[in-house]
Amino acid sequence: MMVAGEASGDQWGGALAEALRERDPSIQMIGLGGSVMRRHGVKVLFDIEQLAVVGLFEVLSKIKPIWSAYRLACRLLKDIDLLVLIDAPDFNLRLAKVAKQAGIKVVYYVSPQVWAWRPNRIWTIAKRVDQMMVLFPWEEEIYRKAGLPCQWVGHPLVDEWAVVEATHFDREAYLSAHGLNPSDRTIGLLPGSRESEVKALLPAMIGGIALLAKKIPGLQAMIPMAPSLPKQTRQFIINLAASSSTPIAAVEGDIYAVLRASDVTVVASGTATLQAALTATPMVIVYRLSSLTYAIAKRWVTRPIGLPNIVCKTALIPELIQSDAAPEPICYELERLLVNRTEIDRMKRVLQDVASGLGHRGVSGRAADLVLKQLPA
Fold first, then answer.
1. CATH node for 162-356
2. How far is CA 13 from CA 3, 120, 135, in A?
3. pLDDT tens-digit profile of 269-326?
4. Contact, 33 vs 3, CB < 8 A?
């Protein structure tokens, strides 16, 4: 059984499922996930579109579907040989406890970020997990010190980007196809894959673009809408883009095309920052939680929070957190990048270093090999 909790987990789970089937076509997979896992042969019994949320208190709005998903997952344990958990630690570590009590082996893919916040969780993880598979090289030693078998497999984005990079991309044709001017400066707006992120961040992003357009003429923007977003949230994005005096195209998915077409981008902290790094697109990282969640979480969270800054142990990429994730600071940081070629070039060099620190191709295959080793003979 494979359990993912959000869009990125569904993506990695789908790639892992594909690699598992290549190695053992007879393998049967069930789980909680989304369209990507389903497409690659996982019998998805609960769609995670109902679960995506960020924040300690924001989760209360989703408590009913979360509880339904948890009860279903617990019932399914009696029919499986191995449990593969993908990210979503608050949900998955509880499920891991039940699995261990039932004598079922647990593999964890995409480690909880114990190096960023709540480091004491590592002792709970070590008790409940049989094999950890991590995305970043420094995570390996952290888990091994806690006595948990751990292997760095690399980041699955590396495989994803290798496929995209090999395809020809015509920036001029892409922008024209979406009603934008290929000669104008283009800013990518990536507000996240969860409804709560989009509603918290996108108005500030668009507000920042409006302020910047008064200083730099000929600006336009693009917003890739994550497939995991509910229909009403995609409509919210479309309406917000249409109401802007600056030309903004809201497009379905295709985050890499938007990044490749953009001169700079504003990105919600998370996986998309690494996708921007792989395309070497200069960025400003933003994030915002509810005031109460942030007041509690900031005790545990270390800075920086942006994955590219963490990977390269630098603070070069600006991070606008909480009240700073507002139109004026966004405008300031974008302007600083757009008018300073030296800063742009410097950031691109750092992003190339970030990309090289994510490992080499074959990530999902290495993860699949470790999963198969945990299956009972």
1. 3.40.50.2000
2. 8, 27, 14
3. 989 999 999 999 999 999 987 666 655 566 655 667 789 998 887 778 999 998 899 9
4. yes
